[in-house]
Each structure stands twice: as structure tokens, then as C-alpha cells.
Amino acid sequence: MEMGSQLVVKTLDGLAENAIEEKPQPQVAEPKNAYKIFKEDTRINWHAPSKTIHQFILGMSPYPAAFTTLKIENEEKGLKIFGGKFELSNHGREAGTLDISKNEFKIYTLDGIYYPLELQLEGKKE
After folding, report:
1. How far is CA 13 from CA 2, 3, 21, 90, 92, in A?
2. Coil, strand, or helix at residue 47?
3. What is the pLDDT of residue 2?
4. Distances from the Cα of 115 to the Cαs of 45, 67, 107, in angstroms?
5. Can you give the pLDDT at residue 90?
6. Would you call 118 exposed, middle or buried from its count of C-beta atoms within 10 A (0-12, 13-18, 19+)?
7. pLDDT, tens only, 10-54
8. Residue 99 in contact with residue 83, Cβ under 8 Å?
9. Separation between Cα atoms, residue 64 and residue 61, nearest integer Å
10. Burial letters for 74-95: b for 16+ Cβ neighbours within 10 Å, e otherwise?
11. Strands lying side by side in the sheet with 66-72
């Protein structure tokens, strides 16, 4: 943020002093819209590498939000995950397996463990 603000000031000063040459953006034959993101596009693939999962979650946060499902008392519930951390580990557990204790919630990935820190269970507040 600090570097960006300094660059804006430097650029505006350069434009005011005619020290910067303006270059028009290249024209595209036909502009394209980004494709629509559907709910299923935001589902987390726990069989992916931990870093990929982490980046996917951050990229979907805060909206539309990455999600997974949990089975709670024989009912599937959606769980949005907005952020967390990961560690690489040779755990030997199946990817997507949960481990929930009083002080810790972790989900095993292809090559490590993901610790969701910001989440929202379906029908609850974040």
C-alpha cells in the first residue's frame, strides 16, 4: 500500500511535468467478459496440494467464498472457508479427512494439513 501510494504520486508528478510518455492500451478486437462463477466452481478440492487449496480459498474470499461440505448428525451442511493456514506434512491420511478436537480443526490435503481459521457453517454467522 505504501509503495503503491508513492508510485501514484510519482506518476502524477511526472505527468504534470510532461516527464512521462503516455502509452494507450492495446485495442482488443472484441473485449471478453470473465466467465460466470457458479456455486460448484467454489467447491474446495481437498485432493489438491495444500498451497493450491490455500490460494484458492484466499482467491474466493470474501465473496463468493470457497466451500466444502460436512456431515453433521447424518445431514450434509455447507461450510464456507474464508482463510486459514497450511503446513506440508507426510501424514498418511486420506485427503479430505477431518480431525476436530476441542482446540483444533484440521483437514488433511494431498501433501499436508489445512487449518481453517475463518469459517461459516451453513445457517450460522461467520
Report:
1. 17, 15, 12, 53, 58
2. coil
3. 85
4. 15, 14, 6
5. 93
6. middle
7. 989 998 898 988 888 888 888 888 889 999 999 999 999 999 999
8. no
9. 7
10. eeeeebbbbebebeeeebeeeb
11. 66-72, 75-88, 112-121, 105-108, 98-100
d(CA 50, CA 56): 10
Cα–Cα distance measured from residue 95 to residue 48, given in angstroms and rounded to the nearest whole number: 8
* Side-chain-side CA neighbours of residue 20 (13 Å): 13
Q: Is 23 helix (H, G, I), strand (E, B) or coil?
A: coil
- Give tens-digit pLDDT for 10-22: 989 998 898 988 8
What Å distances lie between residue 83 and 58, 114, 124, CA to CA? 6, 10, 17
Rounded Cα distance, 72 and 70, in Å: 6
Rounded to an integer, what distance in angstroms lies between the CA atom of residue 116 and that of residue 7? 35
* Cα–Cα distance for residue pair 41/93, rounded to 1 Å: 25
Q: Hey, which residues does 114 pair with through a beta bridge?
A: 86, 107
- Average per-residue pLDDT for the chain: 92
The pLDDT value given to residue 26: 85
